[in-house]
Design brief:
three-stranded mixed beta sheet; 18% strand
Length: 201
């Protein structure tokens, strides 16, 4: 590897957070150079064809971008979506991501995932597209995230769902019409009703 190739690869990794084998090839650098830098401890392999600087800490937003690259049809959900929308104080170590029922669960090195399986409208409803580190990241909106928290209350905790509902209402981060629609699609209307009534009264 020439010093120029090495410098270009490291510059790409710093600029984008993650460098892909395809990105290296587009820059005219053979992907074997990435493997060499991994062996030298300069880069870390995240998942197939994706690398990052070894010393670079994974921030929450960076982790979402990595997850979106690894699972392009997935949707950031539950605790990770809460953090993205600035609701609550929880900073989950894992990235929570929804995939369509029947889809194969992805594996991503260096990035622990919590996989949630949803089907039909419960998967497709409330998806927003955001740009993080040049990557399109699909995230459930606030109303859908709240409905999902109640749907998966056994996994995330009922108290977490209630606190998120209170804070999101106080900060006017959703409309009641959007919440009603999401609750209906997720089939948690009856479960949520007493908590919603207590919050808005």
């Amino acid at each position: 590897m020439t010093a120029t190739d090495r410098a270009r690869l490291l510059a790409l990794a710093r600029r984008h957070g993650v460098i892909t084998a395809r990105g290296a090839r587009r820059a005219g650098i053979h992907s074997q150079q990435l493997t060499r830098l991994v062996r030298q401890g300069v880069l870390e392999r995240i998942t197939r064809g994706q690398y990052r600087l070894a010393e670079r800490p994974i921030t929450e937003q960076h982790a979402l971008a990595v997850a979106a690259r690894a699972v392009p049809r997935g949707v950031i959900c539950l605790l990770s979506a809460l953090g993205f929308h600035g609701i609550g104080t929880q900073l989950p170590a894992d990235v929570w991501i929804a995939i369509e029922r029947g889809g194969r669960a992805p594996r991503v090195r260096q990035l622990p995932l919590q996989i949630v399986r949803l089907g039909g409208a419960a998967f497709a409803e409330g998806i927003e597209a955001h740009r993080i580190e040049g990557e399109t990241v699909r995230v459930y909106g606030v109303a859908k995230t709240l409905a999902d928290l109640f749907k998966f209350r056994n996994r995330v905790g009922l108290e977490t769902a209630i606190e998120a509902l209170r804070e999101a209402w106080r900060e006017q981060k959703f409309t009641m019409a959007a919440l009603d629609r999401a609750a209906r699609i997720c089939r948690v209307e009856r479960v949520m009703r007493p908590y919603v009534e207590a919050v808005v009264s």
